């Protein structure tokens, strides 16, 4: 069958890759499987149930889940095949943003996963005139449950109506409305059609490596990134299209446990997760003591010298692989074919290290507005430090100022109810302006230099690309997070969130009393002096105008909950600067 609309993908999977574990979610400590047939049956019930509720094509329904789960997948399929527009919403955004999105999209019904999200939605329900009801996935006393919709659709005599509506859905019809996380101003509704996402799935298909010896029935994916994010969502469709089983991780905290249980072949990651995995590996190896510790550092030294990706060669590398790097792979379940990295720039140093440890990472690049993949590395064409070749069905053009622009079937048509912003984001000849600066090298690989909006100019007129400097700084064990500032100032400075656990261990080894809470640790003069040494080493690799002249340690962990990171763990620069305004003023000698 030809795949043209999102709901064609589950039908394609049923026809070509039927299996007992299409989706797997953990409930009360037990992994529960949903077969391909059961998934399609449940999706049909949802479609029929919603039609009985009076839902019509073009209506908007919000889906909000704390962690990805099978119910979300069933709802997504059930909505799409009757022309209902899904509006996935991040669980972590503020009630004010919920209210704005619900009113802007004119949400009819909302499905939430749990008690906390239900409370959040009920807070703003009275301010949303279009909202007729809220359903939950968990069983919650006094709340309408999603199974009521399944029960409404139990009678399959109206299935013909579902099929008639499906046939009438065009590739250009709106499939989903995704609101950007709103790091600046109000969230924008990105309108993505069936063609937008399907063309991206099909364009990305050749880039996913497969093992000839591995049957689709045995191929497993561990999905942990928010499914409301288009990166994870497109992969969710791509993995269905390949017939792979998708296991939904319980949470970031339980990732280690879930990886050991599932032994995945594929996993999507964001750079922050790769950094955390490496930090855990490093801390375990460096504190092993005795011979184990010596072997760990010997192996690490060997791998850090490699400037290209290659298999172990020579006796030393083969021994290091067997004694050390095999354990790294086992820590990720032992069966990983590849990690797929997106959402932000991955450190070249870490990428090389993982690749040479036998853990391939395919780094890609894209935006919500491009559904999302613009380019991605593959096993046949890979260059560490780049985001790979653009997809074959896209045209990438670098503008005179270095901005990456793109045209093709996966590029969105417009922002919802926002003609002015839509017009601003396209060039006169119809290319979408990504807001990123980059270039295509002689071999056709796309390299991102920085975010156009994040680059800033010092008062001396010099441009600073903060992300590149921050990636260098995060290689330090002392630095958990860092943000370079200095727009309009005479020099670059930086906020640093220390790795508080590492700092405590360092202090203990050196008989220093730096306190135990983040607030106390951030005030330690000894720690600040030690981190300044790290910054000095980084400055040696930078031009004079880029060098960080002063730092201040922040007294708390930067988190999603604190509003300092996006749901995919990127910095909310404006929020970080506002939060630590007193430290900013201190670095630049501003008077309060």
From TrEMBL:
EC number from the UniProt entry = 6.2.1.3
Coiled-coil residues are none
| GO cellular component assignments | membrane
Reaction catalyzed: a long-chain fatty acid + ATP + CoA = a long-chain fatty acyl-CoA + AMP + diphosphate
Under PROSITE patterns, the record lists:
AMP_BINDING (PS00455)
The first-level EC class reads ligase
- Tell me which Pfam families the record gives: AMP-binding, AMP-binding_C_3
- Every copy of the AMP-dependent synthetase/ligase domain together lies at 15-416
One GO molecular-function annotation for this sequence?
Answer: long-chain fatty acid-CoA ligase activity
Swiss-Prot/TrEMBL keywords: ATP-binding, Ligase, Nucleotide-binding
Protein name per the record: Long-chain-fatty-acid--CoA ligase FadD15
């Amino acid at each position: 069958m030809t795949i043209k609309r999102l709901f064609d993908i589950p039908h394609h999977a049923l026809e070509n890759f039927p299996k007992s574990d299409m989706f797997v979610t953990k409930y009360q400590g037990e992994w529960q499987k949903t077969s391909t047939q059961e998934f399609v049956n449940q999706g049909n019930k949802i479609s029929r149930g919603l039609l009985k509720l009076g839902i019509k094509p073009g209506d908007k329904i919000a889906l909000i889940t704390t962690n990805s789960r099978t119910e979300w997948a069933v709802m997504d399929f059930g909505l799409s095949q009757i022309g209902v527009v899904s509006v996935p919403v991040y669980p972590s955004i503020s009630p004010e943003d919920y209210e704005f999105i619900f009113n802007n999209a004119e949400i009819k019904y909302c499905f939430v996963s749990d008690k906390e999200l239900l409370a959040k939605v009920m807070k703003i329900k009275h301010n949303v005139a279009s909202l007729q009801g809220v359903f939950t996935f968990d069983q919650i006393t006094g709340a309408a449950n999603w199974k009521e919709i399944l029960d409404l659709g139990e009678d399959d005599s109206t299935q013909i109506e579902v099929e008639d509506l499906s046939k009438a859905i065009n590739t250009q019809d709106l499939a989903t409305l995704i609101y950007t996380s709103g790091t600046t101003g109000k969230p924008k509704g990105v309108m993505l059609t069936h063609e937008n996402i399907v063309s991206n799935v099909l364009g990305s298909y050749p880039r996913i490596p497969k093992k000839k010896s591995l049957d689709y029935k045995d191929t497993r994916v561990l999905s942990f990134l928010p499914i409301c994010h288009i990166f994870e969502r497109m992969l969710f469709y791509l993995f269905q299209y390949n017939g792979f089983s998708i296991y939904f991780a319980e949470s970031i905290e339980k990732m280690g446990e879930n990886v050991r249980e599932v032994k995945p072949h594929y996993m999507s990651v964001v750079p922050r997760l790769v950094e955390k995995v490496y930090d855990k590996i490093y801390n375990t190896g460096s504190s092993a003591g005795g011979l184990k510790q010596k072997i760990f550092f010997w192996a690490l030294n060997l791998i850090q010298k490699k400037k290209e990706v290659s298999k172990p060669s020579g006796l030393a590398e083969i021994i290091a692989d067997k004694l050390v790097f095999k354990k790294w792979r086992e820590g990720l379940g032992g069966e990983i074919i590849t990690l797929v990295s997106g959402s932000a720039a991955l450190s070249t140093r870490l990428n090389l290290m993982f690749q040479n440890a036998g853990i391939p990472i395919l780094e890609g690049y894209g935006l919500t507005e491009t559904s999302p993949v613009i380019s991605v590395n593959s096993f046949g064409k890979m260059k560490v430090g780049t985001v790979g070749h653009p997809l074959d069905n896209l045209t990438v053009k670098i503008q005179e100022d270095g901005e990456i622009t793109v045209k093709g079937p996966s590029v969105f048509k417009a922002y919802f109810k926002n003609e002015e912003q839509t017009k601003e984001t396209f060039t006169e000849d119809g290319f979408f302006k990504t807001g990123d600066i980059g270039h295509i090298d002689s071999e056709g690989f796309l390299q991102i230099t920085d975010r156009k909006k994040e680059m800033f100019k010092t008062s001396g007129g010099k441009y600073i690309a903060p992300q590149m400097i921050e990636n260098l700084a995060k290689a330090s064990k002392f630095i958990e997070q860092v943000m370079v500032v200095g727009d309009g100032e005479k020099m670059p400075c930086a906020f640093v969130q220390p790795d508080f656990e590492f700092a405590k261990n360092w202090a203990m080894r050196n008989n220093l009393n730096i306190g135990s809470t983040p607030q106390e640790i951030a005030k330690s003069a000894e720690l600040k002096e030690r981190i300044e040494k790290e910054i000095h080493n980084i400055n040696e690799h930078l031009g004079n105008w880029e060098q960080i002249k002063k730092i201040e340690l922040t007294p708390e962990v930067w988190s999603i909950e604190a509003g300092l990171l996006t749901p995919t763990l990127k910095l909310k620069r404006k929020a970080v600067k506002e939060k630590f305004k007193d430290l900013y003023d201190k670095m630049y000698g501003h008077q309060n």
